[in-house]
Design goal:
Blueprint (H helix, E strand, L loop, with lengths): L12 E11 L6 E8 L3 E5 L9 E8 L4 E13 L10 E9 L3 H16 L8
Antiparallel strand pairs: 1-2, 1-4, 2-3, 3-6, 4-5, 5-6
Length: 125
């Protein structure tokens, strides 16, 4: 599709799901909400921001828990305040390592959205 935002390497799709995050300095998981995803990373809507460069393990349940996206990610940018429902506080993270079939599951999520709508919802066009 030609409508992809050319400033991004990978097209994104809106996605609502709970992600479990395990930081190496915590003994338990933290649960947050993902609002979009791409093959390169995801946006986690949260007010509990981790510092840039923080690496963590994650697990994201997809399609009623039948598929799981998991691996390691790194915080690459943060947004401290919610300015509107379309601009929430949170963290942009890039995937460092994806486990098992995670890459294929993400591809299917993004590809299905683009095939159904014919566009990247986050492009500036």
């Amino acid at each position: 599709m030609e409508s992809y935002d050319k400033t991004r390497r990978d097209p994104r799709a809106p996605f609502e799901g709970d992600v479990r995050i395990e930081f190496s300095n915590l003994s338990s998981f933290v649960s947050e909400c993902v609002t979009n995803i791409s093959l390169g990373g995801m946006f986690i809507s949260t007010t509990r921001l981790a510092p840039l460069g923080t690496r963590f393990r994650f697990e994201l349940a997809v399609s009623s828990g039948l598929d799981l996206v998991s691996g390691e990610a790194e915080v690459v940018w943060t947004h401290e305040q919610t300015t509107s429902p379309l601009d929430p506080a949170g963290m942009g993270v890039r995937f460092i390592k994806l486990d098992g079939d995670s890459r294929e599951v993400i591809f299917k999520i993004v590809d299905t959205f683009i095939q159904e709508t014919g566009r990247d919802p986050f492009s500036l066009e």
